Batch of 4 targets.
Target 1
Amino acid sequence: MDDLTLLNPCTADAQKVLERLGQFISWCRMKFKPRKSRSLTMKKGKLDDRTHYTVGGEAIPSISDAPVKSLGRWFAKELSDKNQINEIRTMVEDGLKRIDKFTLPNKLKLWCLKFGLFPRIMWPLMMYEIAMTHVERMEQRISVHIRKWLGIPPCTTNISFYGHSTKLKLPLSALTEEFKVKKAHMYSTLRDSSDQVVRGTVPDIRTGRKWNAQQEVEEMESRLRHKDMVGPTQTNRAGLGMNPTQYFFKASTKMKRKMVSDEVRHKEEERRVAKAVGLVQQGAWCRWECVEPRSLSWKDIWKMESGTLKFLLRATYDVLPSPHNLKKWAKTENENCHRCGKKGSLRHILSNCQVSLVEGLYTWRHNEILKELSNALKITIEKANQTKPLKAPAMISFVKAGTSTGANRKARQHTSRLLCLARDWQLVSDLDEQMTFPSEIATTNMRPDMVVWSKQSKSVIICELTVPWEENIETAHEYKTSKYAGLILECKERGWKVDYYPVEIGCRGYATKSLHFFLSRMGTTKRRKLALDLMEIATRSSAWIWNKYKANLPNKQLEVASCIDAAGPPPAT
């Protein structure tokens, strides 16, 4: 009897039963410890503290005098979790205040929240019967501190740091999502237990009226069975059967529980995306068709400067104190740009201001990115010129079923990379000096950003870099494609093989598929690191342009913008 002893005091021989039980335990050569047991007496539905029990002359403590803890859950005389809910909320508040008082960088405070406070409160949330309303209130308090530590205003939606399918992914998770996953996993674990007694007496997991664990598990299993009937669907450019598919009806019990938990997360993410689509300004990232998601790991956050991370978050969701936003937040009356007189939105400041264009701010940002890309390609070309060239395959080499494809590795390498057919590649870029297009290829006044050519294979690679507003990437791609159509045609008429690649990197630091495709075709090593470096340069350059613009604001707008940077605008209504 290590946990709890429940007896009916109405029976006359309740004390005798305890004495005989103690004798039986002694006969089994076990030591009965009354002080480690607990007694609970109920009379007419009310707790009775006057009745006591003894074994061997030693009294058994009442649960009113000494509450007992089992599996991290306290059992007290109230037999209710109301007090425990208040203790959990106090634990969350105290934990947030302690983390906030630490003399640590804000990025490290986020890490303490993720790996310090969250694991401490998740087990009590799973063990006690807590309504979803209380968990949502705790998440609201956590979200307030996350916004503070990230340096984003209170009006920023929590989708910006909890979302998993947004364009900017942070390594944070919502408390309500983790709560639902844990409760659903606990219910499926008890229901599918190998113990027949546990499986036949599954308790009712109470989580309030907003959400029910049993209904959620049944719904997720229904969705998984529907996916089994539909079969694997194609979501990217990979061929059919390239991605392994785990069927629900074939999975083991343990795997089924994991699939149900993952499906709960997918449903929560669908709810976030549906909400983000309805946000005109902060949900604009939903309309970035060609932009690749940018996922920040903890390692990336450590390396990134605090000011750059703050600008990236604010610029992504357009919550910087631009003149247009200041008027929208009822802070000023004038929304026009003080430099050109047009509407002073963030889009105008970072990519459309004619005064900034004439001063060369956008050109400077473009050249900073082009310089890093050009240096990386020079290293790639030097390595390619030092290796033995490959011969182009005369025909397609088919592979029999069951045989290895190692013999065709070089042929596949040839078809995927452009620098394998020659070893006299040259590169010229439009950076410091005014570039002239190689005369042996074509005669033109056009100046692409980079030209790589080989006289041996008579091949030329043209790259044109653009740093537009993310929502204008498709328009910029089409414009650059049509702009150089005449030059490409002239090169082909002279017998040159032309590969043209318009590459776009968003002014806020988001790369497109065209960048990854171009680096892959050029055979650049460490492509992911190079892409991250290019995006980081774009973010830092745009942050510098924004700071320069803000510093030249009129006195009233500058004062308001500085106050908002420190405290943030009021929450959105």
Note: Residues 82-229+248-277 form one domain.
Target 2
Amino acid sequence: MTQHVSGIAASDGIAQAKAYMLVEPDLTVEKTTVSDTDNEKQRLTKAIDEAKEQLGKIRSIAAESLGEEEAQVFDAHVMVLSDPDLIDQANAVINDEKTNAEYAFKQVTDTFISMFEAMEDNAYMQERAADIRDVRKRVLARLLNVTLPSPATIDKEVIIVAEDLTPSDTAQLNKQYVKAFVTNIGGRTSHSAIMARSLEIPAIVGTKNITELVSEGDQLIVDGLEGDVYINPSEEEQDRYQNKADEFDTLRKEWDRLKDEPSLTKDGKHVELAANIGTPKDLEGVKNNGGEAVGLYRTEFLYMDSTELPSEDEQYESYKQVLEGMDNKPVVVRTMDIGGDKELPYLELPKEMNPFLGYRAIRVSLDQDSIFRTQLRALLRASVHGTLRIMFPMIATLQEFRDAKAILDEERANLENDGVDISDSIQVGIMIEIPAAAVLADQFAKEVDFFSIGTNDLIQYTMAADRMNEQVSYLYQPYNPSILRLVKNVIDAAHKEGKWAGMCGEMAGDQTAVPILLGLGLDEFSMSATSILKTRSLLKTLDSVEMAELAEKAVTDCSTSEEVVELVESYLNK
């Protein structure tokens, strides 16, 4: 008898294969008394070194298959294992209690995890707890001489079933064999979901109990378009979904034919479809998917992939590479967005109760302006190699923008005095991610050249709900009329002053949101490169005048997210 389970469709596609249960081995630790404490400390050091080596290999796999941005998470894991406090405390327990290394390591990591998890209002600290859990498994497995399951060793077609996929797990997925994955927990903006979209592997998350219903080797169908999982389906159901998979493959081939086409609506209106990137290596994906611009270049990865602050020349070379690589198509470069969940080991930032609302992004740049000036000089020098647009992140007040712009103007003057060539057509804008800026958009629009709406943060700040917190994930509502009204306010304010408005959050590539955003007049949609062709195909079916009417109804007549979704679906299905 076929069982049906529903979850959140996190990555498009349809797959059929047998289940691979990503189940952890028994890592139960017992306390034993030892006489040779030095030997136990050596065992611990050896296990930690081996775990670091393993993480290095996984990071390389992740960088190759997913890109540098996604691979950064393993640097944090290595940092955990390099923490002298952690190692010293474990060695102290071995010495003081004359106990085995695995018991000491578990005791100390339990303390760290409990401490971080107790900070319920601090997403960054809770993520550090998850990092410690992940690396602890590696060390304990070495000490206990057991093997952790490794997706990297899979050599036949499977669908992975798990409670959740850690970044380490996801980075090892081989598209040749791993046809899809299904998890109990997670959401569309969770790390594993974003990685799945990068790999173009179908994924369903948030099923709540898939691990209880599936056994190793069960035949599964995963419908990543609708969010449906079928356990031990009949031959008839397998045939039906094979046909649906074939239809989807045909659709993908149709999308591929749009690679060199302009992004036009049914009635001929052009909008710009851009891509979000983290490093120059990501340009290949932008080109392969017909990106018309880079709508967000996250420059912080230049800083995170270095053991010290990158020099002006190093930054110049990276910016030049991207600008030249885009062949004069626009490139929006976001200045350093360090802080929050992006720490630099070589830059001492204060420990904060809530770093996402604290000392980060433009706040760091204005406070430590020597770092900011170095970046701005590199950008200004690179500007002659393409079409540069500079964007300041996390702007809350007009004064912050004025201060940042003043520093930019000073560095331009300094370079020009030195005889350096600088483009005279650089646009300067801000990322709208703080509600205060969205509400005051009419005033900002008089002074900026453009807006780019960062919906990932704008939604969680507006709804006062951490998008990574399962308990409040229901409040992460991109279609909520309150969010749509803020977006409309920003777009209208830009257009009133003759400026353009873009969007660089996940919402820009959301197929339910696209018709509304088009109707609201959004000029530029920046998204994961893999979403561009699908969005271009959707735009060809939409009439901009009709979408304006649809958007007006969504903003003025709807009072819930559900009503907005129903409104859009009723239009798309008619």
Note: The chain has 24 helices and 16 strands.
Target 3
Amino acid sequence: MSQQHRFITRAMACVAAAATLVAGLAYAGPALAAETPSYPSDSGKPNVDALLGEFTQYWQPKSNPSNADGDVFRGSVTDKGVSLLKRNDDLTVSINNKAAADDQSGTLVDGRYTQLQRALIDADQNNRETYWDAFGPIMGEWFWDGMVVDPQTKTRALQKTYDLLNGMVGYLPVTAAKQYFNFPRPSMNKDEGDAYDRSVNGENDLKGLSPQLALRRAADWHDDYRGLDHPAGYDGLIPGKSQSFPSGHTMAFYTSGLTLAAMMPEFAPQIVARAAEGGNDRIVQGAHYPLDVMGGRIVGEASAAGRLNDDEFFSKVVQPAQTELRDYLTQRGKAAGYGDTLSEIIANTKATTTGGYRNSFTDAVSTKPITDVRSAVASYTQRLTYGYQQVGKAGQAPRVPDNAEGLLRTVFPTLNAKQRRAVLAATEIDSGYPLDSTSDGWQRLNLAAAFTSKVTLNQAGDVVKVEAGDKAEVVRESAPTPAPGGNEQNKPGTVPGGTSGDGSPSAKPGANTGVVAGGKTSAADSLAHTGIDMSLVTVLAMAMLAAGITLERLRRMTR
């Protein structure tokens, strides 16, 4: 036997022995429970109480860390909070009462449901029920089907998608914050049998605000179309000692919705508009105030961004679910004859244009029906502030939160982190609205506008303009004609990506950068729909260099 043959034989024997050992270990006893994997974003999470801390300027809670009977719902309105919380009360009554009146008259918001019925649907906090119509009536039904357990196979076609969207909600829970702020729920009508009084039997100092609000309750409802029951659930709010601020449902809508938007950037503006509708539906039902919804959005944004900006979590958890969802929708579209690619299917079903997400209800805040992307962005923007007056300093410099750039990674995959932060800075709303002062910038983000912006870069890669458009896209300014004998290479000192250290456009404060706040539709660039990371581009570039292509020639080719 040759030496080479003996080596191979011994190696094969070692492999066989190892396989036998592994097999023996596998059957040595009951399997150990798999540990929950950890990711970099599991550390350094923002403090929810601190993010929402401004609320204590308006309501001073009695400390209630244990949710004890003697302390629950106790606290006092501050002098500074009287006018703001009065507005909070009035908006709640206005939005709730109009939805109840529309329900009685049978006014449908989408051709199928009234606004109050939609609120009962959203109260279930089920991603399938809330987000299906963000994809339009055709593709939305495919999404619904994929999220339902097949009664025969006992599996979901979109199991990874389902697990991801539901798992995201636990990243930044708000239960402890609810107990900390200890703000009582909106009152319910005593005439309908509810003995709960917002003044907690006169023990809270409400500074003259009414202890009872004229809210109208929804009744339990059965959806004949879907065959699902939707209980109103009011009885669980008080005995369960579930406080009002911030809204946990709204947090969940934004956490899962923004994750879904990252998976399907073509539908990002529709998805976040639907998340905003879900938050508003908590007011429709009389379960929350507008400030509760704003607080829930802040936490939901921070929660989604923390995960989506984590490269390891994105590659191991988000991208597999994204591939599953996109492949599934493509297969359904091909089978139905709408095209061979996802982009063709979206275009032929008109899912992001005339055949997409819409609803016809209006109220004191969202004043026009949602019929297209532009109106969806407008409605979303109105619900960022709920019409409150600014309570802090207006005109402050942009404040882009840490990790927020992760929310744009698939909408603008060809931009780097600093460029994405520049887009967020250019599209954010003004400073000074309620909850802004402690939110680290989350309150100011206008993600619907950011998701739908046309971004212009100069030849150095600086973000020089962000403007409203009909689709999210990136364009580059034409290179200037060099003067005779001139050199058009980049000048020393240019910040890569064209942004300053805080992510804002790299121009001095007050300079005319050409940045225009605003935004509109679509899903950016050729890579946006795939979620491909720029690391792939880097690998390709290295391969090209290995083949002998110079950096200078590569730079010219990519202009």
Note: Residues 311-335 form the longest helix (25 residues).
Target 4
Amino acid sequence: MKGQETLHFQSEVKELLKLMIHSLYSNKEIFLRELISNASDAAEKLRFQALSTSNMDHGNLCVRISIDKECRTLMISDNGIGMTRDEVIDNLGTIARSGTKSFISSLGSDQAKNSQLIGQFGVGFYSAFIVSDKVEVRTRSVTSPDNSGVSWQSSGEGEYTITDIEKDQRGTEIILHLRDDEDVFLDPWHIRSIVSKYSEHLSLPVEIQTYNEKDDTTSWEQINKAQALWTRNKSDITEDEYKEFYKHLSHDQSDPLTWSHNRVEGKQEYTSLLYVPTQAPWDMWNREHKHGLKLYVQRVFIMDDAEQFLPNYLRFIKGVIDSNNLPLNISREILQTNHITQTLRVALIKRSLQMLETVAKNDPEKYKTFWKQFGRVLKEGPAEDRGNINTIINLLRFSSTVCQDALQTVSLVDYTQRMKENQEKIYYITADSYLAAKNSPYLEMFHKKSIEVLLLSDRIDEWMMSHITEFEGKKFQSVSTADTTLNQLADTTAEIQKQTEQALEPFVHRVKALLGTRVKDVNLTHRLCDTPAIVTTDVNDMSTQMAKLFSATGQEVPEINYLFEINPDHVLVKRAADTKDDAEFADWIELFLSEALFAATGTLENPHQFIQRLNRMLLQSHIENPSISSS
């Protein structure tokens, strides 16, 4: 055949196709929803292209379904925009193009998990292989000359054949050669029920071919209402219809967590239907991945992923925006600067946050589900959206020292209600992990005084806290930042503390002389109980966790010059202070500093030297007191 060639899928794609075909899906019929949705999108794209192309008549757009029981085929066709040969290769020859191997590695045999794969990884078209042993695609692009079309065929065994053909009309036909045990999809009434269930809300007619036995003729019968769901009155839409529309829109098999449907009239007229998913997509942390709302103007499809309407920290929101004010020939560049768009953006952000506020207030358990999936994304909000920062802060959740586990369930309202009398600050600590934060020496006095501290261990937390200064008049205070007021938490009075500091002033000078410029300053602290010393950062200096965050992104980070704070009441510090031998004194101070740096950073510049020093001091302690080993 003319232009025929056989091409191979990527090796990992073959593995994925095999897994899809032979896995037990809990709901096989979703393949029809996916193929009808794709056909609908092709028609909508043609309708949009016709707006900006002179002399282009798109005619009566529709999706058609026909059944051939003798040949055991099911065909889904559209008269939409079609595909060129290159587009066929790009769209049908590559599956889950980004991160395919990581996708495959995440798959398991759990049936419920498998049922959610379609759409979530961009494999909607390939769901046809669940019920078919061969799939044929015949397509002709609206831009193709004469009758030039393309045929694509595959049995899902690792290769496909592509051929140049003649096709009279634009659009795409997908012909499924059904497996022997899939007779149910040759039943017109079953197909009607699937369309009614999944595609009733499409704004495009879905027609099925019917046969009249009396006069031996065939005709096309529309089997859906062809009214966009968002244009209907909310009171006329059932909960199941909202859920099915979400699945059509997002290609997500899970039900949405919540949604908000609103029609605004007046100076600016628009309708919005926004959804919060229950489950995060696999590429949620790829900030470059396309996201946003589906944009319509006067019910005419304009674009997918209109990201101008929502900021990055709300990139998990799915939905539709249909405006009567935006000009129909609007381009992406114009859309970014249009004042109407900016007004819509403000309104949609507010609506999205209100959805989350409602869930957090009325259904805490459901909000826990949201936070587990999308909490780290929402934490980007304080830096990106200063206008809504108070609302965002109220939606944040944390773990704290009153929690029994690492689950982030504490709101700032919860924290402030539990604050001690005369407590003026909201205390928090950032660390590499929950356990590191929970067991940090910086918390010793807080544990003793039963003062709650927020435990922050997500990588983004330090960056987030740099954009949050206060909550309800209470300032935030990192417990790893220098703060002389923390000495007030100690059991000793200010007068006794002052006397201790005066008595140990020579010791402090001796430590400063030893360490020199390796530390910013040396001070005594009364906030510790069981730890000899800690290092802290000055309030105006870069914190340890912020330095790690910058380093992880490949940025050059200046060396942190720590403040060295020593516990004068610790028995080892008292021993060091009484030591006359300079070498032994240096060993003690270096040991304290290394321990403090290790607790703060999780690493040491020279761990071997630290181990040698520690072994030397243990050996010396044994020589001075041999009874230790026998006790």
Note: The chain has four domains: 5-224, 230-360, 365-486, 489-625.
